[in-house]
């Protein structure tokens, strides 16, 4: 059936290709004459598009020349001046120190003017080595053809921040500083002491570049010059104009070719009508085959509905059976609770009175063996009393195990559990409770199942502390908080931590992990509860020097009842 559908779908591309191939052969037979193309280029719309192209070319020239201006003045010239300053720092201080000490003013001025004023070279009378010299005076300044920019409004105060060399007598033989490379913007000081008497200093000032407008005006004035900057600007302008004109010509040629194609299509309209009729006939055949495919689809949908209905029926039957089993479990639990409440052991609340009476009798006895027997009897009765309290505590939580899940306040339920801890834990261990969130955390869960999960982890922590009784001051902390956008409760202790196998498999597998301590089913029950509510568990031993382990249970948050 899929092959039939594929054959039908392939027919329309074949028809379309046939029509297009014939139109292509018609265009090939059309002659594009230069005279008609020239007439098209003289039309009003073509000239308007030419003006638009020239406008775009002007913008391109502006942006490219501005980029070239920035690159030339801020990079090329800057690096050239950096190299010049580096050379002068190695040579000029020695020569200037010699002729300055001799007082040869003409030789000093001639030396300063040797750079034609392309950048500033200034000698002052400063005789201190500090960077700032507030009382110095300018005694010599370079002059030349190109000194207008850096020399404009020159004052002593403006020398601060510029690089300089100290002039001494006898003259220095090593440079004070250097630029590590031409691209560097700051100097690197050479480690050496100043020897001799300081007789002045020489400053080096960079020549500020002209504004972009001044640079463009100079280019337009000297457009025929052989200067490198002028040649670059000329190349940019010429390339932009030629490219824009070429693009305009290609666009106009495409417009002209499109117009010719439209005329060709009109000439062969009758032929296309015939092709269209053939396409309509092919489409009708395709529709017939499509209807056949739709019939197959209807048949498959009918079969699918029959299968779905049978499956739903089986699922409903299984659901009813599970509901019946759960109801029977609920009845059995209620019967157990009723029988426990009727037990005389639970209703007898005089155990403590009996223990007190035995203690008084023990005090009047004189034989050590009899006193030991009484002490064992008192301990045995105390254990029985704690067991009875635990049974009564468990009865209060047992009836809720078969209740339906509901929307509960996570933090509130954990706090209720803390205020009603099992008697053996409450009387034997230091258990603390903390809440680290201000939000109301709502989860969908049976509260008795939540307490059982926390209780199991609490029993494990207390079991670990029991092994260290007398060695460390055992403590368990129950923390209610929010983690990874979920409601979280963490049980932390300061025991010896968990063995690696227990840490890996606890609450993760059905394996019995603690069969020596009891029945060992707690981990499996907690695992089932976690799966039931889509919860997660994170376990870890604390890193040294801390002791103990932490177990965190995370439950999905519900923002409102509608999400339950």
What does this structure look like?
GO terms for molecular function: ATP binding; protein histidine kinase activity. The protein has 564 residues and is of the alpha+beta class. Among the domains are: 104-211, no CATH class; 343-398; 403-563, Heat Shock Protein 90. The protein has helices spanning 2-9, 11-29, 34-41, 44-102, 105-112, 148-151, 212-221, 228-267, 269-342, 344-347, 351-364, 368-398, 410-419, 423-428, 447-466, 500-505, 522-532; strands spanning 120-124, 138-141, 163-169, 177-178, 188-189, 197-205, 406-409, 430-435, 442-445, 475-483, 486-493, 536-541, 549-556. The protein has a five-stranded mixed beta sheet. The longest helix has 74 residues, at 269-342. The protein starts with a helix and ends in an 8-residue tail after the last strand.
In short:
The chain is an alpha+beta fold and 564 residues long.
Radius of gyration: 49 Å
CATH superfamily of one domain: Histidine kinase-like ATPase, C-terminal domain
Round the mean pLDDT to the nearest integer and report it: 78
Question: For the report, how would you describe the main beta sheet?
Answer: 5 strands, mixed
Question: What proportion strand?
Answer: 5-15%
Shape, per Cα inertia axes:
flat
Examine the secondary-structure arrangement and name the CATH architecture of one domain: 2-Layer Sandwich
Output the helix-strand order: HHHHHEEHEEEEHHHHHHEHHEEHEEHHEE
What structural class is derived from the secondary structure elements?
Answer: alpha+beta
Number of β-strand runs = 13
CATH fold call of one domain: Heat Shock Protein 90
| Strand arrangement across the biggest beta sheet | 8-10-11-13-12
Number of helices: 17
């Amino acid at each position: 059936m899929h092959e039939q559908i594929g054959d039908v779908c392939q027919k329309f591309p074949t028809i379309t290709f046939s029509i297009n191939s014939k139109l292509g052969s018609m265009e090939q037979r059309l002659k594009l004459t230069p005279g008609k193309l020239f007439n098209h280029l003289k039309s009003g719309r073509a000239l308007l598009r030419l003006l638009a192209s020239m406008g775009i070319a002007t913008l391109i020239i502006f942006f490219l020349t501005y980029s070239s201006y920035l690159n030339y003045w801020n990079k090329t010239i800057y690096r050239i001046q950096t190299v010049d300053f580096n050379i002068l720092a190695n040579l000029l201080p020695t020569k200037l120190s010699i002729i300055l000490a001799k007082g040869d003013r003409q030789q000093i001025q001639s030396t300063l003017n040797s750079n034609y004023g392309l950048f500033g070279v200034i000698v002052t009378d400063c005789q201190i080595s500090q960077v700032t010299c507030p009382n110095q005076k300018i005694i010599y300044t370079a002059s030349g053809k190109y000194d207008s920019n850096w020399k404009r409004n020159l004052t002593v105060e403006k020398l601060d921040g510029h690089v300089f060399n100290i002039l001494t007598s006898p003259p220095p033989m090593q440079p004070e500083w250097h630029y590590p490379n031409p691209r560097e913007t700051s100097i690197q000081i050479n480690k050496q002491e100043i020897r001799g008497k300081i007789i002045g200093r020489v400053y080096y000032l960079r020549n500020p570049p002209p504004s972009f407008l001044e640079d463009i005006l100079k280019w337009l004035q000297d457009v025929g010059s052989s200067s490198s900057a002028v040649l670059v600007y000329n190349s940019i302008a010429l390339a932009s104009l030629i490219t824009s004109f070429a693009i305009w010509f290609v666009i106009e040629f495409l417009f002209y070719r499109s117009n010719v194609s439209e005329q060709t299509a009109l000439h062969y309209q009758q032929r296309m009508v015939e092709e269209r009729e053939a396409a309509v006939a092919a489409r009708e055949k395709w529709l017939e085959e499509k209807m056949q495919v739709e019939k197959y689809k209807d048949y498959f949908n009918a079969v699918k509905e029959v299968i779905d209905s049978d499956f739903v029926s089986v699922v409903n039957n299984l659901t009813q059976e599970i509901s019946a089993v759960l109801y029977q479990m609920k009845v059995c639990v209620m019967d157990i609770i009723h029988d426990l409440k009727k037990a005389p052991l639970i209703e007898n609340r005089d155990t403590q009175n009996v223990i007190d009476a035995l203690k008084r009798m023990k005090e009047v006895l004189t034989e050590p063996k009899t006193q030991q027997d009484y002490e064992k009897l008192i301990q045995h009765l105390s254990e029985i009393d704690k067991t009875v309290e635990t049974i009564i505590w468990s009865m209060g939580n047992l009836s809720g195990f078969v209740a339906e899940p509901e929307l509960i306040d996570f933090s509130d339920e954990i706090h209720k559990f803390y205020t009603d801890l099992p008697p053996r834990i409450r009387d034997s261990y230091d258990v603390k409770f903390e809440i680290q969130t201000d939000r109301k955390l709502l989860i969908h869960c049976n509260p008795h199942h939540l307490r059982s999960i926390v209780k199991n982890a609490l029993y494990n922590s207390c079991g670990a502390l029991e092994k260290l009784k007398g060695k460390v001051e055992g403590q368990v902390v129950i923390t209610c908080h929010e983690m990874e956008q979920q409601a979280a409760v963490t049980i932390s202790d300061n025991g010896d931590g968990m063995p690696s196998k227990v840490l890996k498999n606890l609450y993760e597998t059905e394996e019995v992990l603690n069969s020596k301590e009891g029945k060992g089913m707690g981990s499996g029950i907690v695992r089932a509860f976690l799966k039931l509510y889509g919860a997660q568990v994170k376990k870890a031993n604390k890193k040294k020097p801390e002791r103990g382990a932490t177990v965190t249970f995370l439950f999905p948050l519900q923002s409102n009842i509608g999400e339950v």
